[in-house]
Amino acid sequence: MTSSFARPIRYGMIGGGRNALIGSIHRIAAKMDGNFELVAGALSSEAERAKASAADLGLSPERGYATYEEMANAESGRTDGIEAVVICTPNHVHAGPAIAFLNAGVHVICDKPLTATLEEAEELHSIAKASDKVFVLTHNYTGYPMVREARSRVLSGELGEIRLVQVEYPQDWLAKPLENTDHKQADWRTDPARSGPGGCVADIGTHAFHLARFVSGLGVDRISAELTSFVPGRPLDDNVHAMLKFENGARGMLWASQVAPGHENGLRVRIYGERAGLEWVQADPNYLWLAELDQPRVQITRGGHGSGADAARYIRVPAGHPEGYFEAFATIYTEAAAAIRACDAGESIPDDLLQPGIEDGLEGMRFIYACLESSRKSSAWVDLEN
Amino acid sequence: MTSSFARPIRYGMIGGGRNALIGSIHRIAAKMDGNFELVAGALSSEAERAKASAADLGLSPERGYATYEEMANAESGRTDGIEAVVICTPNHVHAGPAIAFLNAGVHVICDKPLTATLEEAEELHSIAKASDKVFVLTHNYTGYPMVREARSRVLSGELGEIRLVQVEYPQDWLAKPLENTDHKQADWRTDPARSGPGGCVADIGTHAFHLARFVSGLGVDRISAELTSFVPGRPLDDNVHAMLKFENGARGMLWASQVAPGHENGLRVRIYGERAGLEWVQADPNYLWLAELDQPRVQITRGGHGSGADAARYIRVPAGHPEGYFEAFATIYTEAAAAIRACDAGESIPDDLLQPGIEDGLEGMRFIYACLESSRKSSAWVDLEN
Amino acid sequence: MTSSFARPIRYGMIGGGRNALIGSIHRIAAKMDGNFELVAGALSSEAERAKASAADLGLSPERGYATYEEMANAESGRTDGIEAVVICTPNHVHAGPAIAFLNAGVHVICDKPLTATLEEAEELHSIAKASDKVFVLTHNYTGYPMVREARSRVLSGELGEIRLVQVEYPQDWLAKPLENTDHKQADWRTDPARSGPGGCVADIGTHAFHLARFVSGLGVDRISAELTSFVPGRPLDDNVHAMLKFENGARGMLWASQVAPGHENGLRVRIYGERAGLEWVQADPNYLWLAELDQPRVQITRGGHGSGADAARYIRVPAGHPEGYFEAFATIYTEAAAAIRACDAGESIPDDLLQPGIEDGLEGMRFIYACLESSRKSSAWVDLEN
Amino acid sequence: MTSSFARPIRYGMIGGGRNALIGSIHRIAAKMDGNFELVAGALSSEAERAKASAADLGLSPERGYATYEEMANAESGRTDGIEAVVICTPNHVHAGPAIAFLNAGVHVICDKPLTATLEEAEELHSIAKASDKVFVLTHNYTGYPMVREARSRVLSGELGEIRLVQVEYPQDWLAKPLENTDHKQADWRTDPARSGPGGCVADIGTHAFHLARFVSGLGVDRISAELTSFVPGRPLDDNVHAMLKFENGARGMLWASQVAPGHENGLRVRIYGERAGLEWVQADPNYLWLAELDQPRVQITRGGHGSGADAARYIRVPAGHPEGYFEAFATIYTEAAAAIRACDAGESIPDDLLQPGIEDGLEGMRFIYACLESSRKSSAWVDLEN
Lengths: 386, 386, 386, 386
What we know:
4 copies of one chain form a homotetramer.
Chain A: E1 9-14, H1 22-32, E2 36-42, H2 47-56, H3 68-76, E3 84-87, H4 95-103, E4 107-110, H5 118-130, E5 135-137, H6 145-155, E6 162-170, H7 184-189, H8 192-195, H9 200-216, E7 220-228, E8 239-246, E9 251-257, E10 268-273, E11 276-281, E12 287-292, E13 297-301, H10 309-312, H11 325-344, H12 358-376, E14 382-383
Parallel strand pairs in A: 1-2, 1-3, 3-4, 4-5, 6-9
Antiparallel strand pairs in A: 6-10, 7-8, 7-14, 8-9, 10-11, 11-12, 12-13
């Protein structure tokens, strides 16, 4: 990975203050490749915490805002105002700031899922499409070099026609009613008012679904799903079983769970074509397993022999030295920066940038709703309208 | 594993002659623990091959029969006639010999699935139930010590109430139309006349289903399935996707495939309860992974620390020295021998013997038919009547 | 693996009675491929136990002997006397019966190490060389198909000139003074009177050494070793560190330990040439890892794609179904049978039989003594005279 | 990992310009936790390249220096001059800049090994000890959370008295004479004039040695080594075999190699005490394997259950999301920053900071020289004077 110097993009952050989990991850990812500089924030829905969080991060006091509306207003009036905003709030506070900043002429980088509800998603989608600003959705797993390698091999036809996609994302952190303790992350993720009508299906099911789509390059036509809430009293699903039909006739299974003891973040994708299969596991992300028919299995390592150009673009350290979650996340940011710079320069956005965007976001919401509908209808096959 | 000497049980074999795959496996498994002695056989449906195969195995020439009917007749007339018969023919030649030998007063050890059709299965089931002879079905994977360990931990309540069962059995050997070459195994397994109406679902789907049942100790109430034939011209399914509802409310997924490049015999079962999860993989069968909530994952080894009494009963070599497929298969035979000896002694069959039997066989056939029906009905949930 | 019928070789066993560990392993291995039939035994040094053990195994009462001398005498006088003897006693009772049975015209299959002392080994070596009978030493790990595959690839020159051999065999069962409890296996293995002057180096160091020699096909010229007894009061070494110089200039390291917590039987060999490297691990024996320079690592499975003819000779079940310790052990027996039959037929022993023999046994004893000498001499390099 | 805001430390870099490998790694590591800001550099020994490299990094033109002497001089005269310098040049250009900047009152962060020669190391050691500035050596592997976890468990006595340490660092990149191509990294590493008298032993042997020391907390008294140059014409060793005696009587083996096909950066450490053993592998750094005697092996994950406080201090993302090489490297920088700030505040450096320093550097050089001496003396045991 090489680069010549470019001025970092000034950005602000919505959410991500003290005690937030994902804010510091976004900040490290944003600065890793030197493309972004944090200058402003509305870092908490509580004004005191927002101010304190801004101080923690060394922001100028006047750029630590109490609300995103205030921030959108103030920053758009500054000559050194933010060029991009990062939204890392609970789901129900995605659409509001995203629309506000797009309207203020600020590029948007938003955490997933796109919104809490499909209605919000459709509105945001319309506005983003009509906007001349860049919209990036941080389905960060697609930034892993070996995920890029997998996609590249699939799209090149190396596997032949794809027949099967098996994707899963098991976790165990909600196996007990953690939301009844004072656990901020569990609290909002199991609350329909903040998470939306999907629980597990929205929080990690969308990641699994997006990864299956990204690696296969195939659209999903129909879904048959069974959603379950295993923990008594939990109003949202904590386990998703689904079968998928892809546009080319391929079949798939998707499993996402928050109640599977032993799994921390067990995202795994396996894809099989007529001639070969691939396997990738997030916990061991520097490996890609390739099995060609009539050949022994091969372990391709990130940047090692057999690892190709699409992986190499975003590799920062030689093979055998593991990269991880931050580096994959940083790649989404680096592609976001490239898109933003192209946009700001009036150029078209390069085809080889693969960061997820507004279409992925809307599709993810349709996935959630299709799963919910199928599950209500005894796992009947439901169209995933595109 | 300890034992005192008992005279080996005389047995004959149906099928399993020259070029057969599974016959030699049965023979090694049968003799490993010293409980069975091969004395007769109708080893091939072709008379010449049957005779030559008998000579290969050192049988007395007169006990190498051309047909199973002839063998049943002749052996039942000898004072040193066979006490048990092992049936390892294609599916459509299970019911015939099984019924013939039960009627001749011979214990039956039969390969899976029970029969080619549900009708045959029901008839055989009736006859076996009415018979005073032992009927064993070689779902051999249940003989692995760490499968026994898993079952034991589940049934003891260590995992709490079971919530999820994820079972899969991918293979790749039929990814191409191998049946169009001169490949005996592929030929009959893809032929409805010999395999029955199920392809992959019958051949390995039943193994996966039985393992899920065995480890969980839970009945399956309903199945939603999608069966596919990926290889053009193949009349039977080569991929099975299914969702399961267990009697206690647990949910499951089952995947069996013959077209997944990179998988030889990738049988794996994962089971998750309220308090813990377990994982076992056939290719690495000496390990059982245990994950208790709030504890790190533990790798229990066959016979090692943490490996309990139910595994220990059938362990033949110290921990760290791998056992494999034959040893698991032999355990089914050793339990079959114990059942046969108890039966012949007029004793009731000990409760702690876990070899699969006629009920498992009938249930496996119902599983096949439920999958076929669900798949025909757009993956509608179908009852698995017990 | 295919075979036509041959009459089983009648054999007797020295040691291996009740409570013995290794006797039942030898018996299962001997019968697995149908080449041996147990008909006699001097199964314990205690007469009562010897008789009871013979009954356990269903031997004719008169062929359950109290001593090996009695057995050699009696069996050599019978027309149906044993053709081979299996010696699985503690080390100090190897040379005596081996010599007695060779002198009685009986083929010998002996557990490792060859003897307790180098003096005994040299005497036995002379007698065995002068004898026209077959002598087999059960360094059983060389029977694993993927060890055969590794050796075959090395000898074919695929790796180029060999540069490095790293072999290790850690265990943990003697990390505590188990010999002070009533533990039969620990008792004699830590007793110089029965084990000989080497402890760990004799018991498992010789296995590691033999495996390095077998896979590399290279002689070892010199050894620099450091032997340690970590457990207080233990008179024999329980840890071996050694550096090796091979005849071609290759270098190696050998580690054997009985005090390394977490290792059951962690035998592993890695070998590196100019162009490629290989890795094999006994606990996961169905895999061979191949790494060619400038290529990704490849996982060759037993009998799978890339697994060659030398592995295939002794494979009994398709790829993906694991074989283990018994099957590898059985291969040594099957090769022993082939050698015995060739010998008895007056033919020369086929070149492609690879079972270890008397030369390996003597070399193993020289290895032990060289390690002891080097360790006494501050790890000075000591010649391993051949 | 939490932190409140502190002004980033201004630093300059020596080496690390265009085409350099390690420079960008240092820069990412330095900024990851927000503690350092790059403001100056003498980024190449070629003036043109130095200037261009400075521009690539967005430095002020006047702060892109042609030589480190010039930089030391100029920066010490600025009120906004650098507070720390990072030296990431070939070994023979460590001592010079390190001394120059210490003398200029600048904290030093230096790549390993400390210097090219022991003489330089001793001089630098004297100066660093006499200086009131902080000196940090980037043995970066000690920054991995699970290495910290391992050390913490060892030092707490959980393993009991340590008996064995097995450490290895195999690579394969120099298996062919890469230095004869135009390969910058291979060129200087195989050149005694730039690398010093040690090749592999200096480049990665020191990492392995330091890791063994760090995890065990034990000093090494004596070394017996065998160094080899396998590639014809290579003037420096490319393989190191060594046996170690630790101060408490523990024994160890160390293997470092640049000619082991299949290994990218295969650093691994295993440590065994009376009561338990631990294993850690750099390629899969988020796992620590713990084996207590009489217990099954446990896989502790970074930040997961069982992962303790010493690991937690520097964890940036939840368990199951992999961290890697950069994050470990960043931890060294974060500890360096804490030490620098304490130093600049006139406080004593906190005991709980574990970044390697000048003593580790001198010891590493003594390790190199002891290996060289032992190897010259037929692997005689050589004291590692401390």
